[in-house]
Write a structure and sequence with these properties.
This is Mobile element protein. With 432 residues, the protein is α+β, with helices and mostly antiparallel strands. The chain has 17 helices and 14 strands.
Length: 432
């Protein structure tokens, strides 16, 4: 006998629990009609592999007074039927419950029936606890084969548990006031559309492609004009496709360009200018080449974060220099690069501080220098309202990018998907 002490608010009491009940409690089986009679280890060979399985022998019985068919009090016991159930394990070892269910016979109508337990669905051998465990592991981006090994079932049973009865596409939901738009690579190298709530980060919809017609038709057919007019803003990247139809769907919405993509575009222009200088320098051992090659991160850093007091050893240069000395050496030697670097720093500062006046002044007074920064400024000029809103609003596509990163991790862990519906179901499980 096992003794457990339970502390109550008013007094303490001692509960007496039998060994059978303690086994059921460890397995989280709460059916009091099940009694465990024996526990043993059995050796089985699966695909030539030796496995030791923990087997629990139990019995399910209870008093049945009336026949479920005719309702008469003429029911008697009529033997048992053995069912082999898969249950969860505490140690990772496969565990089976060989349960003998009581059978009953009605002497009035001649019908037979069996005892039922809430731990498993009728006519199934996988318990509800195992199904819950399968869904929990599916949220961790594991493959069906890996989940099957962890819970002790077949990969087909895992797929049937995950995908059966679930809809791939999201049901109609309330339209949030702030939306995030983006796309991700789904199956067969195609891109799918994803939309989330910018405030709660809940999924709004998943569409199998990113065609303008399908996106527009979805929102026009699923939501009324009043719901679409209530949308205040939509955050997105610099994809011009979405900007063309946003106001057709959401007449009152503001377009917010994601701040990360703004800085990323300017950073790429800075890298292109740096690489152009590296290609022009024939002497790869010269000091300037080594600075541009090994200390490239310093040029992407905010000027206010550069160390200008303490000299540090710079790998690749084999010199003790401050961060500011490295940047000043390059900008003094290459005037065109200095202009690109100055423009990048202005953009970085304006985005971080929300200084729309400085950003507008840069766009208005910028002089082309035949570099990638010319294209960046031209893009900013065309998308000025969205970039201005990025400085004024706190919303961004950061939460959506995090979800897309999880989707990429899921695809990588599962070695890709061929079925789009299966991918969407797994995405819904992860984001549930």
């Amino acid at each position: 006998m096992l003794r457990f002490k339970r502390l109550n608010k008013n007094r303490s009491e001692v509960l007496v629990m039998s060994q059978d009940n303690s086994i059921l409690s460890l397995l989280n089986i709460k059916d009091e009609n099940i009694e465990i009679s024996q526990v043993e280890n059995q050796i089985r060979y699966v695909g030539g592999e030796k496995r030791i399985i923990k087997v629990l022998h139990g019995r399910l019985t209870y008093r049945l007074t009336r026949c479920p068919q005719c309702g008469f009090r003429s029911i008697v016991k009529n033997g048992t039927r053995l069912t082999k159930l898969r249950v969860t394990s505490l140690t990772g070892q496969e565990t089976r419950l060989h349960l003998r269910k009581q059978r009953y016979l009605c002497r009035n109508c001649g019908q037979t029936c069996g005892a039922h337990t809430p731990i498993v669905t009728p006519n199934h051998s996988i318990t509800n606890q195992v199904r819950i465990r399968i869904n929990e592991l599916a949220r961790n981006s594991l493959t069906a084969e890996m989940i099957a090994k962890l819970v002790g079932v077949s990969p087909t049973s895992v797929q049937r548990t995950i995908y059966t009865g679930r809809k791939a596409f999201l049901e109609h939901r309330r339209l949030p006031k702030i939306l995030c738009f983006d796309e991700f690579r789904s199956v067969h190298s195609t891109f799918s559309f994803i939309c989330i709530d910018a405030q709660t980060h809940n999924l709004v919809t998943l569409l199998p492609d990113r065609l303008t017609k399908h996106i527009v038709d979805y929102f026009l057919n699923q939501y009324s004009l009043a719901e679409r007019q209530a949308v205040e803003a939509v955050t997105m990247d610099l994809n011009a496709q979405y900007q063309h139809f946003i106001h057709r769907i959401f007449p009152n919405a503001e377009i917010i360009i994601d701040r990360f993509h703004i800085v990323q575009l300017a950073g790429r222009a800075l890298d292109q200018a740096r690489l152009a200088i590296l290609h022009e320098l024939s002497d790869h051992r010269c000091r300037h080449y080594k600075m541009l090659k090994s200390q490239w991160r310093l040029f992407h850093r905010n000027e206010s974060q550069l160390n200008s007091q303490r000299r540090q050893f710079k790998r690749g240069l084999n010199e003790y220099l401050t961060d500011q000395e490295v940047v000043d050496t390059i900008t003094d030697q290459f005037p065109d690069f200095k202009r690109v670097y100055t423009s990048y720093q202005t953009i970085l500062h304006a985005i971080q501080e929300g200084d729309t006046a400085a950003l507008k002044a840069l766009i208005n007074h910028y002089q082309p220098i035949q570099s990638e920064m010319d294209t960046v400024i031209s893009t900013f000029r065309k998308n000025w309202q969205g970039i201005k809103n990025a400085c004024c609003y706190q919303y961004s596509n950061g939460p959506l990018e995090g979800i897309i990163r999880k989707i990429k991790q899921l695809k990588r862990g599962c070695f890709g998907f061929k079925n789009l519906a299966h991918l969407f179901i797994r995405i819904k499980l992860i984001h549930a």
